[in-house]
Amino acid sequence: MKRCDWCEGNNLQIEYHDKEWGVPVYEDRIHFEFLLLESMQSGLSWQTILMKRENFRAAFDQFDYNLIAQYDELKIAALLKNEGIIRYRKKIESVINNAHAFIAIQKEFGSFNQYIWQFTNRKIIVNRYQASKEVPSKTELSDLISYDLKKKGFKFLGSITVYAYLQAVGIIDNHLDSCFKKV
Ligand SMILES: [Zn+2]
């Protein structure tokens, strides 16, 4: 069975690729989970994030943005002592900041899901490359969304991070032409 080449040789990445990557997300809680994980990734490997994913889930109240928005200095101090997650103050503070921005979007658009899918008119963008090295790291769409998110107060979500997020939540389907997950 052929898979996208980036996940080969790693069970955690294979399982993620087969079960989650590129499956369209329509639930706000899951959108927030991926925004959090992707924002944590910058400068690290996705493998590192996947390995720590359950630690993140436990540390950040199952990715409940309403609870995260209420985190105070005491909670930040506790998170900075948690060896199971990424202990980088600016990233942790950005998660709290992003929870506030996320809730503001829900209020403005009804849901984050409603907001994010409007960028493609609710359609999945399908690209078929032969190898991962051909896949761009960002596009005009990710530039636009990153810019808009920044305007709305989000941090640690540059265009490259946003492009990774759009692939994760299935707004962009970048399974390779040879991959069995290709629809
Ligand atoms: Zn694939």
UniProtKB/TrEMBL annotation:
Taxonomic source organism: Carnobacterium iners
Recorded GO MF terms: DNA-3-methyladenine glycosylase activity; metal ion binding
Keywords (A to Z) from UniProt: Metal-binding, Zinc
Domain of life: Bacteria
Residues binding Zn(2+): 4, 17, 175, 179
Protein name: DNA-3-methyladenine glycosylase I
InterPro entries, sorted: Adenine_glyco (IPR005019), DNA-3mA_glycosylase (IPR052891), DNA_glycosylase (IPR011257)
GO biological process: base-excision repair
